[in-house]
């Protein structure tokens, strides 16, 4: 009922209807097989049938791609409990099992094709023998229950993202070229993406007699640059992975919830009733100054030690400082200031992939000194994945506005925080204070308050500090990593306290 009312009100007052699509659930499946084995992204046929039965028996209404497009473009009213079923990668299991089954349920669905894979190009080893042929695709597009969209031509693969050889998705990464020790510039990047999408569109037009008007971005990653290139080729809808957060539906960005780890019916039900309860953030603060002046092998040893400590602490968030303590040198490639050592992306990438810590905050010191804020933050956002930026309280409104405008182009949905004195609360999403300064904080939502525990370098002191924070209703807390690394005291007890949920 909420979505229906929002759409009607939006139509009356002239606000884009899709901005109210809070109830829309978009699910993302991959392979549906008899036995998924150890594949996290596959579900068994029995589990999938149970999911569809649950939707049918509990009043959910799977809708077509056309119905979703109408809701966005024409302000039509979606049914209550609307669901969009999407299937990525163009796997044979969709043609052989999923599509025929969904036709029995009379459930529409959307399948995305990596056209290079259908051409037999760059098929991942794990997908050998599992990808649909063009004949398969021609068979499914005849069904009124099936919509086919692009999954790019050949961007569903990793490319070098930094000088250490880490690979990230080709659709969003500015490629690193070892031969020239340089990164792809924005002109090169846009041209590469445009050519790939155009080839995907032309292949689908030739083989299926229809060009795609939507794209499912590989790995769910996107930015405003790739959206613009896709729109220029007639792809107006963009399927991403964002836990069905559809706050950007007015721009055609469709957030999806990934169905992973073979959820049973109970877990599936929870996916459909997304909770808005904030996840408590237990964090560690990491400085990169120790990497300066070290050889690559020494840096790797330091990184391994850092990862080991973070794993033991079981934090779910990390704060990293992307510049040196004096605020003058960067830890990433930029022309806006001197570069101390290009290690930021390597550290962040390893934290995200090896430890599965997905929430990374970059902390900018109050003494930040760069030639050009636009260039500095553009390079930072283009080359590094992060979720939030944390500024000192003295940051000017002018600088903050510049940063927001630049970063939004490359990192959608970035949050902004502030540390130090805490007025100007309307400009920021969260606030970092020290535990000793907590007493001066009043009338702040506890979900937006992060507390850095200070003066607690032993287990007893840390336990007392955390217990005090709990008594004060603090949800989000953390510690600097360096004192834990350097003080030489036993670590096991401290790890027990800092672990998520402790």
Protein architecture, described:
The structure is a single chain. Strands 1, 4, 5, 6, 7, 12, 13 and 14 form an 8-stranded parallel sheet that branches. An 8-stranded parallel β-barrel has the order 15-16-19-20-21-22-23-24. A two-stranded parallel sheet has the order 2-3. Residues 1-22 have low confidence and may be disordered. It has 2 domains: 2-272, Glycoside hydrolase/deacetylase (TIM Barrel, Alpha-Beta Barrel); 282-498, Glycosidases (TIM Barrel, Alpha-Beta Barrel). Helix content is 36%, strand content 19%. It contains 16 helices and 24 strands. The chain is globular, with a radius of gyration of 24 Å. By secondary structure, the protein is of the alpha/beta class. It has helices at 2-13, 45-57, 65-73, 92-105, 115-118, 134-140, 186-208, 224-232, 265-272, 296-313, 344-354, 373-383, 397-410, 459-471, 481-486, 492-498, and strands at residues 25-29, 31-33, 42-44, 61-62, 82-87, 109-113, 146-150, 158-160, 167-169, 176-177, 182-183, 214-216, 237-241, 253-258, 282-286, 317-320, 329-330, 338-339, 359-364, 388-392, 415-419, 430-434, 449-452, 476-480.
